[in-house]
Specification:
This protein is an alpha/beta fold and 251 residues long. The chain has a single domain (7-182, 217-244), classed as Rossmann fold (3-Layer(aba) Sandwich). It has helices spanning 16-27, 39-46, 64-76, 100-120, 122-128, 150-170, 189-192, 197-210, 219-230, and strands spanning 7-11, 31-36, 52-56, 82-85, 131-135, 176-182, 241-244. A seven-stranded parallel sheet has the order 3-2-1-4-5-6-7, with helices on both faces. Helix 6 links the parallel strand 5 (131-135) and strand 6 (176-182). Helix 1 crosses helix 9. Bound molecules: NADP nicotinamide-adenine-dinucleotide phosphate. NADP nicotinamide-adenine-dinucleotide phosphate is lined by residues 11-12, 14-18, 36-38, 58-60, 86-89, 109, 135, 137, 182, 184-185, 187, 189, 192.
Amino acid sequence: MENTQRSVIVTGGGIGIGRAVARAFAGRGDRVLVVGRTPGPLAETVDGYKEAYALAVDITDPAAPSAVADEVRERWGGAVDVLVNNAATAAFGTLGELNRQAVEAQVAVNLVAPALLTQAVLGPLEAAGGVVVNIGSAGALGLRAWPGNSVYGATKAGLDLLTRSWAVELGPRGIRVVGVAPGVIDTGTGVRAGMPQEAYDGFLEAMGQRTPLGRTGTSEEVARWVVRLVGPEASFVTGTTVVVDGGLSLT
Ligand SMILES: NC(=O)c1ccc[n+]([C@@H]2O[C@H](COP(=O)([O-])OP(=O)(O)OC[C@H]3O[C@@H](n4cnc5c(N)ncnc54)[C@H](OP(=O)(O)O)[C@@H]3O)[C@@H](O)[C@H]2O)c1
């Protein structure tokens, strides 16, 4: 893809990694539609960027894929060069502690919604020779187990398979599909998934110590690779997931 202005959709852009990704694209002059459920954080993300727009929508809503496609049509004529499937939800629990609502929510947000949203913008992506970026998780790659977070991990392992499968399906149409798999990034996500703040702080401390580079990562360190994988230097890269985890998944 050329290094000119792009039209970008980022889901889950109100906080953390999604916010950093949205701002990284907006900061280089791209048009960005930032999607999430909560209007306040979305407005904060786009504040100060001339061509960044917020859309408050639940991506699990059956009407969401067409609402997003309609929004980019109204905002800038429907072009889509980049779709970043970043929104996710997690709920901790070992088998025996799971409840239907939490299991279904993780599958709906982390797998069903990216599949249907990507499908809704395939036409514009093909017209642009565009790129889909799926944000996975370093913890769910390979043959690792994830006790206590198995359903979330399964959705992220599934997303990784979607990345590889879509790369094969969409390569002939000129669309690249790549993944970025973060390690532990302090975005507050553990608290949103149900951990008390103190426990999350302890988790971050312990994971930082276990990480070969000796710390947790930042959202900006992940966002940088999303932008890099979209650019012309990655024009022959598809189906690949780049791990941005300070070496944690090797331990
Ligand atoms: N942080 C980490 O350590 C880490 C590690 C590995 C992978 N990841 C992955 O990196 C991505 C970003 O993680 P994060 O930690 O920055 O944030 P996060 O806690 O995973 O939340 C991401 C965003 O998703 C949005 N979202 C959730 N459900 C939604 C729905 N139904 N419709 C629309 N938006 C929805 C949330 O906004 P609303 O609640 O306002 O909708 C939030 O802005 C995720 O895919 C995550 O799995 C994170």
